[in-house]
Amino acid sequence: MTERVALFIDGSNLYNGMRENLRNTRVNLQEFITQLTRERTLVRAYYYNAPLTEDYDTELRDGQHRFFESLRRIPYVTVRLGRLHRRNDGSLVEKGIDVALAVESLSLAYENAYDTALLVSGDGDYVELVEAIKRRGKHVECAMFKSQSAEILFEFTDVFRPLDELDWSKILF
Fold this sequence. Notes:
The chain is of the alpha/beta class. Helices cover about 40% and strands about 25% of the residues. The longest helix has 15 residues, at about 60-70.
């Protein structure tokens, strides 16, 4: 029986990592998923992000919307959207993304929907989630650029997969 993998992608974390490490954010997500899952069976890929707010440039918002729509056309990809919230200091923060990713990945672990959770994020806040999934007897891998990853995440995941090592010539547009 082949290993079943569920992919949980923190979209803004991936976007920021690509922007800083590759200077390009135009990604073929289907090829990205193929390279990450390798010879294993993809159960589903969940992509989490927040739509840009009205105060962003129309062209940027339209581009993001087209990207989300293109993801929805990829087989076995589910897009989950949170929201952006403006703080009193004017900065924007995503709301609902981390919690949605945690709830979905943990509930699917309880349903025995996958063997391995592959988390595409370098956020150290996910350590408790990683531990909870492992307590269900599941494997947990983390994939992110080395420069974008919290060291503590390396210690808790079973496998760390540096995105730096993917064949980006096939992934980027």
